[in-house]
Design goal:
The complex is a heterodimer of chains A (about 450) and B (about 475). By secondary structure, chain A is mostly helical. Chain A contains 14 helices and five strands. Chain A has one domain. In chain A, helix 8 runs antiparallel to helix 9. Chain A is globular, with a radius of gyration of 22 Å. Chain B contains 19 helices and 22 strands. The relative contact order of chain B is 0.12. In chain B, the strands form seven sheets. A six-stranded mixed β-sheet of chain B has the order 3-2-1-6-17-18, with no helix packed on it. A five-stranded antiparallel β-sheet of chain B has the order 8-7-22-21-20. Chain B has a three-stranded antiparallel β-sheet with strand order 14-13-15, covered by helices on one side. In chain B, helix 12 packs across helix 15 and helix 12 runs antiparallel to helix 18. The chains are: A mainly alpha (about 450), B alpha+beta (about 475). The interface between A and B is large, with 68 and 51 residues.
């Protein structure tokens, strides 16, 4: 079987699973959901088949598992979003259309040789910084849920940080490939770029009030730096600098401090000062309301979950019990409905996606490809860890999206571009290696 | 570079694996703790997605608690309604979204929601979940007789007090009224209205099991049992009543001091409720002996019942708000204890248990209000069988006390409690020191031969005596139960 046929077969399996998910939501919520909406599953399947056709033409030798795994993640997300609010699922569907278009455009544009991106690395770097600064600009910048991550242009609202992440990875892959020998010597004057990036990450942190994004960018940078230079102490020094910087910011920026306090002590016995109301309240009724309610949702799921469509997210008056359920807390919604068994499977899908990504980085022949694949994959893994870890109180909670699962246009589009990047690297690696296709797992 | 990529991959996978560990922690290990959190609104609403079982009275037809289906935002919630309103509110309790739960709704929650840990029901509920059908809870059938319960409620007429009736042979709670009652339907919508004090009394308190009152002369039944079991006295023992009893050089006076009874025996002392006689008995046998007998009747432990434990109180001496058992006789005034004053506080349920034990030949039966729990398919999950808690007084002495109590009703202070069948009873009037604020009591059982019902009735802040205020209520309840 050729790689692309294998991909199609896997997609069919994903399509069947998606249909089952939608059917189960339909059965559980017949009163508010019509049969016509069952066609959603078919629609998503169609979109992925379209992506598959583009991949068949442009990257015939690429890894056959990444697209179906991404499809499965989207299916988890879209089913849950649909269950929470069918209107949002429709909008998410439109964004997936845009995402598939971006995916196809990326593949078609770069099908001959994506490595020419390397020569534009500085353009990518500058664009990334520009995108990061956008939300801080007056008029177009938007503050949502306390973090300044959004840009609003007319009816269009997006998070430029998602795309900036990918641009930054392209820049770093090119830059580090070029400078890796020099950096590896470890001379002090070569640390300029490292310090510059560290400073940039801190700036982003202060500017956006968002610890999560800063951690994400800096983590990607350290991983790529380590792979490029093979110097483990760079990572140690980088982490030390990050922690030092974060400590300073912790004391300077009230919001960061409050996030850490919430993380350490979400429940209080006594009433504490509540900045939102200006009065006194238990912390679980004020600052840590979101986190605590999300933990209740997870706990309520238990081992087997309540079943798609049967979770409790609203009281008898229809008022929501958990805020930001579609985006930041989609994991807690899923955890309640599909239980430990279900979300463990979801995390396994994330792990498989990362494993395929790292495998591509290993199989790639040149430094740029390796660094690009590694950066994209590690960024994907780290982002998953930061948001889910925040929801699970492993680390302080920050508002970034769960790749492919969360509701949100910019996130969906950026992740489709990320997927296209990985497929391009994979295609080239497999094509240049003169191994028969069938010999590869 | 591949070595470094491997290491980064391992780090990434460890990060993701840690998420699995954390999820397992919250969903398996910490889940029960989360479910117990006061502010866990998700848990509270989620429990209303279960089709809760009904609660019935003893006739199996009178519905005390049922569901009303509420469909909102695509979810079906089973909220509670209480068709009998305040009839047995303190036994049934309530189950609400905002005020949590009370009564049987709280203590029998696992059965009512079908989450009782029985392998059979667990399999059943899991199958229900897989089928996507609503989980159904079990029905609870109580021992409450709705007719007599209604009569008791009306007889109390909203005055502050309580009435409880037991079946002496089994311990079944046939009637349990705490007055004023409240409408459990109002708890969710209008808590202020449901909990508003009436006649200066808090309606949410279950006075039957948690109301603590000075017993007054009804405690003489316990003292009498202690005196007979101690062997120092017989029903024929004679005493001289000068109208008072001297203790610590002070006079302890009878209820009515105007006409001393002179030479009387123990039977007459009980019949006319002569304080001075019991005061002298108490001095003779000592406070600890009396309290030891009281303990055999169930004092000094929270009476067993299916309602939540925090809705029940233990009877006994209370010192600074805490249950207190003296270490030696000097710590308690035996004369005043003997006729139910001192610091003795009792619940109506405990006094009904005393009455029922005398009726039952001295054996105390475990009181119960849940007769059986029935699964949706009709199988009986739990059936309560009568249980004996122990012997409080020797059978022949119980018999003697019963005869004394019969004299009380036929020709003593409790004639207002007389039924068409031979009745035994004891009046009590505990003075609170404020005129017109007596706590009045009547405990009784009937028929004397082969008793079918034992009652305790208490009224707060009365100007009359137990014989004039409480005994007529007790009579109506017993009449309704004997038929």
């Amino acid at each position: 079987m050729t790689l692309r046929n294998r991909e199609l077969l896997n997609l069919v399996v994903v399509g069947v699973i998606t249909s089952l998910g939608f059917a189960s939501v339909y059965i559980a919520r017949q009163e508010v959901v019509s049969t016509a909406s069952l066609s959603y599953a078919l629609f998503f399947f169609g979109l992925y088949v379209a992506a598959h056709v583009v991949a068949r033409v442009t990257v015939p030798q690429a890894d056959p598992y990444l697209l179906p795994l991404a499809g499965l993640l989207t299916a988890f997300g879209v089913t849950e979003i649909y269950r929470l609010n069918p209107d949002n699922a429709f909008r998410q569907g439109l964004w997936i259309v845009v995402g598939v278009a971006a995916f196809s455009a990326t593949l078609i544009l770069l099908r001959h040789d994506f490595r020419r991106l390397e020569s534009y690395k500085y353009i990518f770097g500058v664009t990334a910084i520009g995108l990061l600064i956008l939300p801080a600009l007056p008029l177009i910048g938007q503050t949502v849920n306390g973090a300044r991550l959004w840009v609003k242009l007319g009816p269009l609202q997006f998070q430029p940080g998602e795309l900036a992440k990918i641009f930054l990875i392209v820049f770093l892959a090119g830059y580090l490939r070029e400078k890796r020998e020099v950096l590896a010597q470890g001379r002090l004057k070569d640390f300029g770029p490292l310090l510059a990036i560290w400073g940039a990450a801190m700036l982003v942190l202060v500017e956006t009030n968002d610890l999560g994004s800063a951690l994400l960018y800096f983590g990607i940078f350290l991983a790529m730096l380590y792979v490029a230079t093979a110097k483990a102490w760079f990572v140690g020094a980088g982490l030390a600098l990050f922690l030092a910087g974060a400590t300073v910011v912790y004391h300077l920026v009230g919001r960061v401090e409050s996030r850490v306090t919430i993380w350490l002590n979400p429940w209080t016995e006594e009433k504490v000062y509540c900045a939102q109301t200006g009065g006194m309240a238990l912390r679980q009724d004020c600052d840590s309301y979101q986190l605590v309610k999300s933990l209740y949702s997870i706990g309520n799921g238990g081992f087997g979950g309540k079943g798609f469509g049967k979770g409790t997210f609203a009281n008898s008056g229809g008022d929501p019990l958990i805020p930001y359920l579609n985006t930041d807390f989609i994991y807690s919604a899923l955890a309640q409905e599909i239980g430990l068994v279900g979300v463990a499977a979801l995390l396994l899908v994330f792990m498989l996606f990362c494993l395929r990504g790292f495998r591509i980085a290993m199989l790639a022949q040149d430094g740029f490809s390796k660094l690009l694949a590694l950066g994209l994959t590690f960024g994907f893994a780290l982002q998953t860890f930061i948001i889910v870890g925040g929801v699970l109180r492993v680390i302080p909670l920050t508002g970034i999206t769960l790749p492919f699962v969360s509701y949100g246009g910019s996130s969906v589009v950026a992740n489709f571009v990320l997927l296209a990047g990985l497929l391009l690297v994979s295609n080239r690696a497999n094509a240049t290696a003169n191994l028969p296709m069938e010999a590869r797992p | 570079m591949n070595r470094q990529i491997t290491k980064v991959a391992v780090v990434a996978l460890i990060l993701l694996a840690s998420l699995m560990v954390a999820t397992t922690y919250w969903q398996a290990y910490a889940a029960p703790d989360l479910a117990d959190k006061q502010d866990n609104s998700i848990q509270r609403v989620a429990e209303f997605t279960v089709k809760r079982g009904n609660i019935y009275a003893a006739d199996g037809r009178t519905v005390l608690a049922a569901n009303k289906v509420d469909k909102a935002a695509g979810q079906t919630l089973y909220l509670r309604r209480y068709p009998s309103r305040g009839l047995a509110a303190h036994i049934v309790g309530y189950s609400t979204q905002v005020r949590s739960r009370a009564g049987l709704e709280r203590s029998e929650n696992d059965f009512l929601t079908g989450s009782n840990a029985n392998l059979n029901t667990v399999v059943e509920t899991t199958l229900d979940k897989l089928r996507g059908s609503t989980v159904e809870g079990n029905d609870v059938y109580t021992t409450i007789r709705p007719g007599a319960q209604r009569i008791a409620l009306n007889a109390l007429g909203g005055r502050c007090g309580a009435a409880v009736a037991l079946e002496p042979r089994t311990g079944k709670v046939l009637v349990s009224v705490s007055s004023p009652t409240y409408d459990p339907n109002l708890i969710e919508e209008n808590f202020a209205a449901a909990s508003r004090a009436r006649f200066g009394c808090q309606p949410l308190l279950n006075r039957v099991t948690a109301g603590l009152y000075a017993p007054g002369s009804i405690f003489k039944v316990v003292t009498g049992a202690a005196a007979l079991d101690g062997g120092e006295f017989t029903p024929g023992s004679t005493f001289n009543d000068p109208g008072y009893c001297e203790e610590y050089g002070k006079r302890v006076e009878n209820y009515d001091t105007s006409s001393p009874f002179g030479n009387v025996n123990l039977v007459e002392a009980m019949q006319y409720s002569i304080n001075s006689v019991f005061c002298n008995i108490g001095k003779a046998i000592g406070g600890i002996k009396i309290l030891q007998t009281a303990r055999k009747f169930g004092f000094y432990s929270v009476p067993p019942l299916e309602t939540p434990v925090n809705e029940r109180s233990a009877s006994g001496l209370y010192d600074k708000g805490r249950l207190f058992f003296p270490e030696d006789d000097t710590q308690v005034d035996p004369g005043r204890l003997a006729f139910g004053q001192e610091r003795m506080l009792v619940t109506p349920l405990q006094m009904a248990m005393v009455s029922a034990a005398i009726a039952n030949g001295g054996r105390v039966m475990k009181p119960y209000v849940v007769d059986r729990i029935v699964a949706p398919d009709g199988t009986i999950v739990v059936r309560q069988k009568p249980e004996e808690l122990g012997e409080a007084v020797r059978p022949d002495h119980a018999r003697s006390i019963a005869e004394m109590m019969e004299r009380v009703v036929c020709c003593g202070t409790g004639t207002a409690g007389k039924l068409s069948v031979p009745t035994a009873g004891k009046t009590g009037t505990a003075e609170t020191g404020v005129q017109g604020r007596n706590t009045t009591w009547f405990i009784a059982f009937a028929p004397v031969e082969n008793p079918r019902v034992a009652v305790a009735v208490v009224l707060e802040r009365q100007s009359g005596t137990g014989g004039t205020t409480a005994a007529p209520i007790a009579r109506q309840i017993m009449q309704a139960l004997i038929g």
